[in-house]
Amino acid sequence: MDDREDNLFAIESLLRPVGRPVVRARSGDEALKTVMRGGIAVVVLDVVMPRMDGLEVLAYLKRLDHTRNLPVVLMTGLGRDDDLAARAYELGVSDFMFKPVDPWVVRTKVRALADLYVENQSLRAQLGALPRRGAEASAASLPGLIGAHVPRQPGGGAPHVRR
Known about the structure:
Elements: H1 5-15, H2 28-37, E1 43-46, H3 54-63, E2 72-76, H4 82-91, E3 95-98, H5 103-129, H6 135-149
Parallel strand pairs: 1-2, 2-3
Helix pairs in contact: 2-3
Protein name: Response regulator
């Protein structure tokens, strides 16, 4: 998302080698509508936008259950601003970049974030299907799932959690 056609063209050209469709949005409202329609794996936003800036779009996306885990990359041409970056990370941005950007770095990060998001969504769908098999089957599979991820203490007990 960017309000400038030249920036949209540059980002689209930069991301084309990633091998995923690139959808343009020229405003925060347009970006939100596009994301709500689905099929988006990563959102790349410019920080400075008229009416609704990139931080506002980010905050809105992170408030909604179905977009909370969607990776968002913010870019700015304002120069290095650690306070702005800190606000973005507090809101849940996946990455924050300063223009001019290194095309290889952007492609690598966007590809990795998209792949992780798609895999995460697939795992969520698989987990969501577990209760439909019946409570007994789900309960029976839990010890195996837990045992695979939680180290056991000597003697077979679960580790203690300190609070």
